[in-house]
Specification:
By secondary structure, the chain is mostly beta strands. The chain folds into 2 domains: 34 residues, no CATH class; 95 residues. Helices cover 11% and strands 30% of the residues. The relative contact order is 0.17.
Protein backbone atom coordinates (compact mmCIF):
# COMPACT_ATOMS: atom_id res chain seq x y z
CA UNK A 1 0.00 0.00 0.00
CA UNK A 2 1.43 3.37 -1.04
CA UNK A 3 4.56 1.50 -2.25
CA UNK A 4 5.11 -0.17 1.14
CA UNK A 5 5.08 -3.95 1.48
CA UNK A 6 2.72 -4.81 4.34
CA UNK A 7 2.72 -8.60 4.01
CA UNK A 8 5.05 -11.24 2.55
CA UNK A 9 8.63 -10.76 1.46
CA UNK A 10 10.20 -8.62 -1.21
CA UNK A 11 11.73 -11.45 -3.26
CA UNK A 12 8.60 -13.61 -3.69
CA UNK A 13 6.49 -13.14 -6.83
CA UNK A 14 2.79 -12.76 -5.98
CA UNK A 15 -0.30 -12.61 -8.24
CA UNK A 16 -1.20 -8.94 -7.88
CA UNK A 17 -4.17 -6.77 -8.71
CA UNK A 18 -2.46 -3.41 -8.69
CA UNK A 19 -3.13 0.25 -9.29
CA UNK A 20 -0.51 2.50 -10.81
CA UNK A 21 0.11 6.13 -9.87
CA UNK A 22 -1.95 7.05 -12.96
CA UNK A 23 -4.92 4.88 -11.87
CA UNK A 24 -4.29 2.03 -14.30
CA UNK A 25 -5.34 -1.48 -13.25
CA UNK A 26 -2.32 -3.79 -13.58
CA UNK A 27 -2.57 -7.59 -13.36
CA UNK A 28 0.37 -9.96 -13.11
CA UNK A 29 2.86 -11.81 -10.94
CA UNK A 30 5.49 -9.51 -9.48
CA UNK A 31 7.99 -9.36 -6.66
CA UNK A 32 8.35 -6.07 -4.82
CA UNK A 33 10.99 -4.53 -7.09
CA UNK A 34 9.18 -5.65 -10.26
CA UNK A 35 5.98 -4.05 -8.95
CA UNK A 36 7.84 -0.81 -8.25
CA UNK A 37 9.40 -0.92 -11.76
CA UNK A 38 5.90 -1.44 -13.24
CA UNK A 39 4.68 1.68 -11.43
CA UNK A 40 2.32 -0.11 -9.04
CA UNK A 41 1.44 2.13 -6.11
CA UNK A 42 -0.96 -0.18 -4.24
CA UNK A 43 -2.02 -3.79 -4.77
CA UNK A 44 -3.82 -6.77 -3.32
CA UNK A 45 -2.84 -10.39 -3.75
CA UNK A 46 -5.71 -12.29 -5.35
CA UNK A 47 -6.74 -14.20 -8.44
CA UNK A 48 -7.86 -15.54 -10.82
CA UNK A 49 -7.58 -12.93 -13.49
CA UNK A 50 -10.69 -12.77 -15.68
CA UNK A 51 -9.49 -10.63 -18.61
CA UNK A 52 -5.87 -9.56 -19.16
CA UNK A 53 -5.08 -6.91 -21.78
CA UNK A 54 -8.29 -7.78 -23.64
CA UNK A 55 -7.69 -11.55 -23.56
CA UNK A 56 -10.27 -13.78 -21.86
CA UNK A 57 -8.68 -16.03 -19.24
CA UNK A 58 -11.62 -18.27 -18.25
CA UNK A 59 -12.43 -21.11 -20.64
CA UNK A 60 -14.44 -23.60 -18.55
CA UNK A 61 -18.14 -23.07 -17.71
CA UNK A 62 -17.64 -24.90 -14.38
CA UNK A 63 -14.75 -22.65 -13.41
CA UNK A 64 -14.85 -21.61 -9.78
CA UNK A 65 -18.31 -22.99 -8.95
CA UNK A 66 -21.34 -20.90 -8.04
CA UNK A 67 -20.48 -18.36 -5.35
CA UNK A 68 -20.99 -14.74 -4.34
CA UNK A 69 -18.40 -12.66 -6.18
CA UNK A 70 -16.67 -9.34 -5.91
CA UNK A 71 -14.56 -8.26 -8.86
CA UNK A 72 -12.80 -5.26 -10.36
CA UNK A 73 -12.26 -4.31 -13.99
CA UNK A 74 -11.16 -1.41 -16.10
CA UNK A 75 -11.92 -0.29 -19.64
CA UNK A 76 -9.18 1.04 -21.92
CA UNK A 77 -10.43 4.60 -21.36
CA UNK A 78 -9.69 4.21 -17.61
CA UNK A 79 -13.29 3.70 -16.46
CA UNK A 80 -13.48 1.26 -13.55
CA UNK A 81 -16.10 -1.48 -13.35
CA UNK A 82 -16.98 -3.02 -9.98
CA UNK A 83 -19.17 -6.10 -9.83
CA UNK A 84 -20.81 -7.47 -6.68
CA UNK A 85 -22.87 -10.65 -7.10
CA UNK A 86 -24.88 -12.03 -4.22
CA UNK A 87 -25.08 -15.77 -3.67
CA UNK A 88 -25.58 -18.76 -1.34
CA UNK A 89 -29.13 -17.56 -0.76
CA UNK A 90 -31.66 -20.04 -2.24
CA UNK A 91 -34.71 -18.28 -3.59
CA UNK A 92 -32.77 -15.02 -3.93
CA UNK A 93 -29.38 -15.62 -5.56
CA UNK A 94 -27.15 -18.66 -5.99
CA UNK A 95 -24.12 -16.69 -7.18
CA UNK A 96 -22.16 -17.10 -10.38
CA UNK A 97 -19.19 -18.94 -11.81
CA UNK A 98 -16.10 -17.29 -13.25
CA UNK A 99 -17.13 -17.75 -16.91
CA UNK A 100 -20.39 -15.86 -16.26
CA UNK A 101 -18.43 -13.18 -14.41
CA UNK A 102 -16.15 -12.86 -17.43
CA UNK A 103 -19.22 -12.41 -19.66
CA UNK A 104 -20.38 -9.51 -17.48
CA UNK A 105 -17.03 -7.78 -17.84
CA UNK A 106 -17.04 -8.39 -21.61
CA UNK A 107 -20.50 -6.85 -21.88
CA UNK A 108 -19.22 -3.67 -20.23
CA UNK A 109 -16.02 -3.50 -22.28
CA UNK A 110 -13.41 -4.43 -19.68
CA UNK A 111 -9.84 -4.59 -20.94
CA UNK A 112 -8.55 -5.93 -17.60
CA UNK A 113 -10.60 -7.66 -14.89
CA UNK A 114 -9.91 -9.80 -11.85
CA UNK A 115 -11.84 -11.75 -9.26
CA UNK A 116 -11.52 -10.50 -5.69
CA UNK A 117 -12.59 -12.25 -2.51
CA UNK A 118 -16.20 -13.42 -2.53
CA UNK A 119 -18.54 -14.98 0.00
CA UNK A 120 -19.45 -12.63 2.80
CA UNK A 121 -16.56 -10.41 1.66
CA UNK A 122 -18.62 -9.53 -1.44
CA UNK A 123 -19.96 -6.26 -0.10
CA UNK A 124 -20.56 -3.07 -2.01
CA UNK A 125 -21.20 0.27 -0.33
CA UNK A 126 -22.61 3.28 -2.11
CA UNK A 127 -23.36 6.62 -0.54
CA UNK A 128 -22.72 5.22 2.95
CA UNK A 129 -25.00 2.17 2.62
CA UNK A 130 -24.57 -1.50 1.73
CA UNK A 131 -26.28 -1.90 -1.66
CA UNK A 132 -26.15 -5.67 -2.00
CA UNK A 133 -27.39 -8.57 0.14
CA UNK A 134 -24.39 -10.31 1.71
CA UNK A 135 -24.34 -14.09 1.96
CA UNK A 136 -24.30 -14.33 5.75
CA UNK A 137 -27.18 -13.47 8.06
CA UNK A 138 -24.81 -11.34 10.17
CA UNK A 139 -24.17 -8.99 7.25
CA UNK A 140 -20.90 -7.72 5.88
CA UNK A 141 -17.51 -8.83 7.23
CA UNK A 142 -14.87 -6.56 8.66
CA UNK A 143 -12.14 -6.43 6.03
CA UNK A 144 -8.53 -5.24 6.17
CA UNK A 145 -8.74 -3.36 2.87
CA UNK A 146 -11.10 -2.02 0.24
CA UNK A 147 -11.22 -0.18 -3.07
CA UNK A 148 -12.62 3.29 -2.43
CA UNK A 149 -13.77 5.53 -5.25
CA UNK A 150 -14.13 9.25 -4.67
CA UNK A 151 -15.47 11.93 -6.97
Amino acid sequence: MNKKLLYGNKSTRYPLIGLSEEGKLILGKYNYQEAMNEGIKSAVKFEPYIIVNGNKQIKNSNSGGLHPRMAIGQKQDGTFIFVAIDGRQPGYSIGTNLLELQSIFERYGAYNAANLDGGSSATMYYDGKVVNKTSTPMGERYLPNAFIIEK
